[in-house]
Amino acid sequence: MILQRRATLVAMAAVCLPAGAQPPRRIGVLAPSTAAREAVTLKPFFDQMTQLGWIEDATVRYDRSYADDQYHELPRLARELVARRPDLIFAPPAPAAVAAKAATSAIAIVFATGTDPVGTGLVKSMARPGGNATGLCSVIDSLAPKALELLLQITPGVRRIGLLGDRDDPRLQQDRDALAPLLAARGMQLVVGGATHPKAFDDAVAMLLRERVEAVMTNSSLSFNLRQRLIELLRGRRVAVIGHRSEMVDAGGLFSYGAVLGDQIRRAALVVDKILRGARPADIPVEQPMLFEFALNRKAAQALGITLSQQLLLRADRVVE
């Protein structure tokens, strides 16, 4: 049914194209995970593009490039993608966008998530990006302090916190800098683990377990894409998992707080549409999140021996049973 609908849309688009119409625009997609995972994550983008009239193989063609969770490969993939000269590069998370920005200053780049695009060099300012990149960011400042506040409300006795991220992602250092003084003031300890590929990810989790952390905070694309693996590695270890996306809670994490990913990915298509129709990335302000979500997993709490208060359950935007 889906293939039939797509074929119908392509046929309709072809009929609507006037004689001498421009050939399909070419969009490079630079994504850090596998094709299967990105198909789920990026579906809101492709759906919105279709609604905007950008029909694949008729009015637009996508050149998809996946790093298969090997984040150190993103710079090479970005250079190869630039060499194929797309009209625009859609690089949703910050590591992909930074790699694309390093590979070209001429081709438009649209990102959909990340923290502090000014600090990472993607744009000159939020209001006037001033270069070839623009898009949406997840937050300007770290949300780790808010996550810590919620964690201490849920498990006030926790003392050793693990921070798991991507060593090449500025968010890891940003969260570390935000958490360190807060934990020190409370007599708590912070243990940091970083990784840029699945094997190193497993090693980082093993290190956190050896350090006897009681909770793991994560705010990276790699941790998001490997969330099922993270839950598997921590199963039965009585370690709470705190994510920045509600998908982590769906996978079995204790709670999450952050922007709604699907909404950001969808809105990025609106930015791409503007650029394809003639707008300059330099003039399109970077957008901030419109939707934030606090999600709780009651089953995960029970497995950890935690009783969630009625007050917390009422505050949650979503409770996973």
Give the uncertain stretches in residue-range form. 7-20
Q: Which percent range describes the beta-strand content?
A: 15-25%
What's the shape?
Answer: elongated
Distance between the termini: 32 Å
Widest sheet: strand ordering: 7-6-8-9-10-11-12
List keywords for this structure.
12 strands, alpha/beta, Rossmann fold, 2 domains, seven-stranded mixed beta sheet, 321 residues, five-stranded parallel beta sheet, 14 helices
Describe this structure in words.
- The structure is a single chain.
- This protein is of the alpha/beta class.
- Helix 3 (43-51) crosses helix 12 and helix 8 (198-210) runs parallel beside helix 10 (227-234).
- 43% of the residues lie in helices and 18% in strands.
- It contains 14 helices and twelve strands.
- It has a seven-stranded mixed beta sheet, sandwiched between helices. Strands 2-1-3-4-5 form a five-stranded parallel beta sheet, sandwiched between helices.
- The chain starts with a helix and ends with a strand.
- It has helices at residues 2-16, 35-41, 43-51, 74-83, 94-103, 144-154, 170-185, 198-210, 221-225, 227-234, 246-251, 261-276, 298-303, 310-315, and strands spanning 25-31, 60-66, 88-90, 108-111, 133-135, 160-165, 189-194, 215-218, 240-243, 255-259, 292-297, 318-320.
- It folds into two domains: 21-140 and 260-283, Response regulator (Rossmann fold); 144-259 and 292-320, Rossmann fold (3-Layer(aba) Sandwich).
- It is elongated, with a radius of gyration of 21 Å.
- The model is unreliable at 7-20 (pLDDT under 50).
